[in-house]
Amino acid sequence: MSRSPVDVRSFFPQGDAVAAAEALSLSQMARGMQGSKILQIAYDVQARIKEGHDVADFTVGDFARSEFRVPEALVEHTSAALRDGHTNYPPADGVPELRRAIVAQAERELGLKYPLESVVVGSGARPLLYGAYRCLVDAGEKVVYPAPSWNNKNFCHQVGAVSAVVPTTPGSNFMPDVQALEAALPGARLLVLCSPGNPTGTMIREAQMREIGEYIVADNAGRKARGERLLYLVYDQVYRNLTFGDLQHVTPVGVVPEMAEYTIFVDAISKCFAATGLRVGWMYGPPHIAKQIKALMTHVGAWAPRPEQLATARLLEDEPAMKTYLAHHLGGIHARLDALAAGLRELQAEGLPVQCIDPEGAIYLSVKFDLEGKGGLKDEDAVRLHLLEKAGVAVVPFSAFGDNKNKGWWRFSVGAVSVAQIQACLPRLREAIRQVM
Ligand SMILES: Cc1ncc(COP(=O)(O)O)c(C=O)c1O
Fold it and tell me: I need a surface site. Which of 8, 125, 127, 273 has the fewest CB within 10 A?
C-alpha cells in the first residue's frame, strides 16, 4: 500500500474536551465506574521499584515469579493440549473433563455431591462472580456484604444494586457479626461472603456459618410463603486450600445442607495454585441458575482457554500431585506470614503503635499502624507514602476494600515477597515509625 496511514488520533477528544465527550458517549454505569484503587497503588509502587528503589511490595493479591510457581503438571498439560491442537472454542459452561473433575473434587474435599449441570467454568473467578450478580440481582435490589471485602462495591455498581455494607471489627477478626448481618438481610436478594477472606486473611467459623445458613433457610421459607423473591448467598472460596493450623474451611451447604438451594459457590485455580494469569475459575449451584450464568457466558465469552481447562481437569484429578504442590505452596505462604507477624509483634512489644491479627488463611495479614495525626501524617495517604518512602514498605489500606470504619488497618499481601525481604524491611519499618513518634 502506497497511501500514508490515516492518523486516527486526530479524531479522538483531547485535554478538556475529554470530559464533555465522556458525557456524550459513555453509559451512566461506565461513567460511574471506578478503577481498582488497589491496582492504582500497586502500579505506583511498581514504577518506584523500576526507578531503583528498594521496596517490599505487599500490595497486589498476586504472586511473583521469583517466589511462587504454578504446579508443573499445569504447565505440562497446558503445553500438551496446545500442541495437540485444543485451540477451538470451549463449550460455554466449560469442557466436560473439567466440569467432571470439579464435581469429583467437591465431593472428595467438601463432601458435597453436585450434578454436572450445576457447574459453569469461566476465565477466573471474576466473570462468575459478575455472572452471579448479573443473573440474580435486578437494578435497585439490595446486596449485603461485609466491609472490608473484595470488589463487591464494584459488582453492585455494574448491576445497579443497592449496597448494604455490614461493618466488622478486629475483635471478630473482621468476619461479620451474625446479628449485624441479620439486621441487614431483610429485603436483600444477595449476601456475599468470602472465606478465607481478602483482605483480612481470616476465616468464618462453623458456628457463624450455621447461624447465617439457618437464618437464610428460615427467611426464604417465609419469602416463599409470601411469594417474594428469594435471598441467595454467593460464597467465594478462592482461598479455600490456603488455611493454616487446625482451622478448617467450612461451607454453607456442608453446615446447613438446605442451603444448597440458595448457595452459589465460586472457586478458581488463581490463588490456590498461584495461577492468577492462567484464568480458570468456576461456580456451582442450583442448575436453573447455572443455566443462565452459562447463557451469559455464551454472550460475553469470558471462557477459560481450552488448553488451561484441560490441564486444570488433569490436575484436579491427580490428588497426589495436588497435595504435594499445596503442601509446598502453603508452607511458603505460611512462612512469610509468620515471619511478618512475628516481626510486627516485636515492634508492638517495643511500644510502637502496631497491631496484627493472627494469620488464618489466604495470603494476607491484617495490620494496624496507629500513625494518622502523628508527626505531620495528616491522613491515610500520608501514612501510606511515609511507609513507602521511608521504610520501603508498600501496603494497601482497608479503605480500598470498602471499609472506612476500621481506620489505620492495612492489608499485607505476601505472594510477591521473600522471607528475606520481609526480614529486611522490618528494621526500616521500625525506624520509619519511630521518626513520627
Ligand atoms: C476474594 C477474591 N475472589 C475472587 C478474586 C478474583 O479471582 P480471579 O483472579 O480468579 O478472577 C480475587 C482476586 O483477588 C479475590 O481476592
Answer: 8
> Which ligand 1 atom is nearest residue 149's CA?
1
How many whole angstroms from 239 Cα to the centroid of ligand 1? 9
All structural domains of the chain: 34-63+324-435 (3.90.1150.10), 72-318 (3.40.640.10)
Q: Which of 194, 202, 238 to mutate to test the pocket of ligand 1 (most atoms within 8 A of CB)?
A: 238
Q: What number does the ligand 1 atom closest to the CA of 269 have?
A: 10
Listing from the earlier edge strand, what are the strands of the sheet with 281-284? 119-122, 281-284, 263-268, 232-236, 188-194, 142-147, 162-167
pLDDT digits (tens, 9 = 90+) for 105-121: 999 999 999 999 999 99
Atom of ligand 1 nearest to the CA of 270: 10
The three grid cell numbers given for residue 157, joined into one nine-digit string: 455498581
Angstrom CA distances, 350 to 30, 312, 345, 395, 409, stand at 49, 47, 9, 22, 19
The answer to whether the CB of 268 falls within 8 A of the CB of 124 is yes
Among 39, 154, 193, 198, residue to substitute to test ligand 1 (most atoms within 8 Å of Cβ): 198
Q: Exposed e or buried b for every residue in 178-206, given b needs 16+ CB within 10 A?
A: bebbbebbeebbbbbbbbbbbbbbbbbbe
| SS3 state at 144 | strand
Residues of the chain with pLDDT under 50: none
